[in-house]
TrEMBL record:
Keyword Oxidoreductase in annotation: yes
Keyword Hydrolase: no
Cleavable signal peptide: none
Native source species: Sogatella furcifera
Positions of heme binding: 453
Protein name per its UniProtKB record: Cytochrome P450 CYP307A1
Superkingdom, natural source: Eukaryota
Cofactors named for this entry: heme
Pfam families membership: p450 (PF00067)
Family in the record: Belongs to the cytochrome P450 family.
Alphabetical keyword list: Heme, Iron, Metal-binding, Monooxygenase, Oxidoreductase
GO terms, molecular function: heme binding; iron ion binding; monooxygenase activity; oxidoreductase activity, acting on paired donors, with incorporation or reduction of molecular oxygen
Length: 510
C-alpha cells in the first residue's frame, strides 16, 4: 500500500466518512471572530464542548469537506482550538504562523502519527511499516535517507537525466495508446491510461522494469492502487470510533487483501525477478536504481529489514497513483478553463517550434505550465497527514499533551482571502512574477519540516511531462462538464471517472 495514497488523503479520508456517519447532527458556525492566542500561557485552549462518546464529530458534518468545517470553526475559536473526535484529543491549527511552529520550530515534538486501525490493516498489521504513517524513529530517518537521492534528484544529475528519459519514453507509449483509442472514438476514458503510464514511469525509474499495458498482473496492480487511493479518500468513522470495528471488519479485510495482492506483485514481478537475474548486484557496484540502493543497504546494514525494504519499495511505487490523479485534476482544470489549455499549448509551441518534444529541461522556460500545476495543487488542497505530539509540549503557549492529534489546516492556507486574492478563481498567473515562478511561503502543498513529502520532485517532473506532451499532441475538452465532479480538499478522482473528448491538434506540433 502506498504511503502517498494515504499521505495525500488522510484527513479527508478520516473525516469524510465521519461526515456521513454523523450527517444530520451537523452544526453550523457563522461567527467571524478571530481569537488571538497571544499571551495564552496558563489558559486552556478554546474549543467547543464535546458530546459524550462521539465528541465533536458532528461539528464536521455540515460542510462539503471537513476542512471547510475546520476553517469555519477557526472563525469562531481562532487560529488554534481543541476538538475531541470520538475518544481522541485533537488540536486544529489554521494559521501559517502556528503551522510553522508545529512543523518546523517544534517538529521534534510532533513527529508521531495517529494510531488508527486502518493504518495497521493497510500495512500488514503494523503502520510502522509505512513511511508516511509510522512514528518518527531512527529507522524512519534511515529510510528517508535511502530514498532522498532517487526521489529528489539534483538538477542535471544522472538520476535527473534518467527521470527525464523514463518520463519521455512512457509518455510516448501513452500517446501511442491514446492514438489507438482515437481510431475508434474521440471519447476516451483516459484515467486508466494515465495511471498505467505513471506506474511505468515509477517502476522504470525506481526498479528498471516496465510492464505492457495489456499485462493483467500489472493492470490489476494499477487498479488496486487507484481503488485504494479513492476508497481511503472516503473516510471512516471507525478511525475515531474504534468500537465500530465489528461493523467494518469485512471492509478492513478487503483492504488487507488488496494490499496483499499489491505486495505479492511487487515481490514476484519486481524484486524476485531482479534477484534471480542479477543476484542483487555486486557488493561494490554503484546502485543502478532505487531497488539496487535498497538491496545494497540491506547488505551493509540490516536495520531496515528485508520486510521494511519491500514495504518501502511498494510505498514509493504507489506514488504513481498520486501523480496520475493529480494529472487528471490538471486536465479537469483545463477542460473547465479552456483558455488555460490554450496558453499551455502556446508555451509548448514557443519552446519546441514544432520540431521536437518537450523535456524536463524545458521546465524552467515554461512558467505558465508549472503555475497551472501549482494552481491545481492549491485549489485541490491535498491534506497534510495529521501529526501527533510525542511529548508534553505547547503550541502558541497553550499546553498540548503527549498523544494529541494535530490537524494542520492547509485548506485554510490555500483558500483564505487573507492569503490569496480571488481565492476561489483558478488563476495560474498568481504564481508568476516577472516571468518567473513565485511561490508564497505559506503555500505548502507538500507540507514542510522533518516529515515533508519525499516525492515532490517526482510529482512535479512526471506531471509536467504528462501534461505538456498530451497538450502538445491533442486538444482536450469535456464531453459533458456536468459529469466532471471534483471535491474540495481532495486529490483523488473515482477510479471509473468521466471520459474526455480528445482530438489531434490540427497541425503537427512535434
Ligand atoms: C500529488 C502529489 C503529492 C502530494 C500533494 C503530496 C503531499 C504530501 C503531504 C502533504 C505529506 C505530509 C507531510 C507531513 O505530514 O508533514 C506527504 C508525505 C509523504 N509523501 Fe507525498 N505527496 C505527493 C506525492 C508523493 C509521491 C509521488 C511520493 C513518493 C514517491 C510521496 C511520498 C511521501 C512520503 C514517503 C511521505 C511521508 C514522509 C514522512 O512522514 O516522513 N508523495 N506528501
Amino acid at each position: 500500500m502506498s504511503a502517498t495514497t494515504i499521505v495525500l488523503l488522510l484527513l479527508s479520508t478520516i473525516l469524510a466518512l465521519i461526515r456521513v456517519f454523523v450527517h444530520g447532527l451537523g452544526h453550523s458556525f457563522t461567527g467571524n471572530q478571530k481569537l488571538s492566542p497571544g499571551a495564552a500561557a496558563g489558559k486552556s485552549m478554546p474549543g467547543p464542548k464535546p458530546w459524550p462518546l462521539i465528541g465533536d464529530l458532528p461539528r464536521l458534518g455540515g460542510t462539503a469537506s471537513p476542512f471547510q468545517a475546520f476553517s469555519q470553526m477557526s472563525r469562531v475559536y481562532g487560529e488554534i482550538y481543541k476538538l475531541r473526535l470520538g475518544s481522541s484529543d485533537c488540536v486544529v491549527v489554521s494559521s501559517f504562523r502556528l503551522i510553522k511552529e508545529v512543523l518546523i520550530a517544534k517538529g521534534a515534538h510532533f513527529g508521531g502519527r495517529p494510531d488508527l486501525l486502518r493504518f495497521h490493516a493497510l500495512f500488514g498489521g503494523d503502520r510502522n511499516n509505512s513511511l508516511a504513517l509510522c512514528d518518527w524513529s531512527s529507522l524512519q530517518k534511515t529510510r528517508r535517507g535511502i530514498a532522498r537521492t532517487y526521489c529528489s534528484p539534483r538538477f542535471a544529475s544522472s538520476n535527473y537525466d534518467q527521470l527525464d528519459r523514463v518520463a519521455s519514453q512512457e509518455t510516448d507509449c501513452l500517446i501511442q495508446h491514446v492514438d489507438l483509442h482515437l481510431r475508434k472514438s474521440n471519447s476516451i476514458h483516459i484515467k486508466p491510461l494515465i495511471l498505467a503510464a505513471c506506474a511505468n514511469m515509477f517502476s522504470s525509474y525506481m526498479c528498471s522494469v516496465r510492464f505492457k499495458y495489456e499485462d493483467t498482473g500489472f493492470r490489476d496492480m494499477v487498479r488496486r492502487f487507484d481503488v485504494i487511493f479513492w476508497e481511503i479518500n472516503q473516510g471512516y468513522a471507525v478511525d475515531f470510533l474504534p468500537w465500530l470495528q465489528p461493523f467494518y471488519s469485512k471492509h478492513l479485510d478487503k483492504l488487507t487483501g488488496w494490499t496483499r495482492d499489491i505486495r505479492r506483485f511487487v515481490h514476484e514481478r519486481v524484486v524476485e525477478d531482479r534477484l534471480q537475474k542479477e543476484g542483487g548486484g555486486g557488493a561494490d557496484a554503484e546502485p543502478k536504481d532505487f531497488t539496487d540502493a535498497l538491496l545494497a543497504h540491506l547488505r551493509d546494514d540490516p536495520t531496515p529489514t528485508w520486510h521494511h525494504i519491500l514495504y518501502e519499495l511498494e510505498d514509493f511505487l504507489g506514488g504513481h497513483s498520486a501523480v496520475g490523479n493529480l494529472a487528471m485534476l490538471v486536465l479537469t482544470a483545463i477542460v473547465r478553463h479552456p483558455e488555460v489549455g490554450k496558453k499551455i499549448q502556446e508555451e509548448v509551441d514557443s519552446i519546441t517550434k514544432g520540431t521536437r518534444s518537450i523535456n524536463l529541461f524545458d521546465k524552467a522556460e515554461m512558467p505558465y505550465t508549472e503555475a497551472t500545476i501549482l494552481e491545481t495543487l492549491r485549489t485541490t488542497s491535498s491534506p497534510i497527514v495529521p501529526h501527533v505530539a510525542t511529548q508534553n509540549t505547547t503550541i502558541a503557549d497553550y499546553p498540548v499533551q503527549k498523544g494529541t492529534i494535530v490537524f494542520l489546516n492547509n485548506y485554510e492556507l490555500n483558500t483564505a482571502a487573507e492569503y490569496w486574492e480571488d481565492a476561489d478563481q483558478f488563476r495560474p498567473e498568481r504564481f508568476i512574477s516577472d516571468g518567473q515562478i513565485k511561490k508564497p511561503e505559506y503555500f505548502i502543498p507538500f507540507s514542510t519540516g522533518k516529515r515533508t513529502c519525499i516525492g515532490q520532485k517526482l510529482v512535479n517532473g512526471f506531471c509536467f511531462i504528462l501534461i505538456t506532451r498530451l497538450l502538445q499532441h491533442y486538444d482536450i475538452s469535456a464531453l459533458d462538464l456536468d459529469q466532471i465532479d471534483t471535491r474540495p480538499a481532495c486529490v483523488a478522482l473515482p477510479p471509473d471517472s468521466f471520459p474526455l473528448k480528445i482530438t489531434h491538434r490540427s497541425t503537427s506540433h512535434t
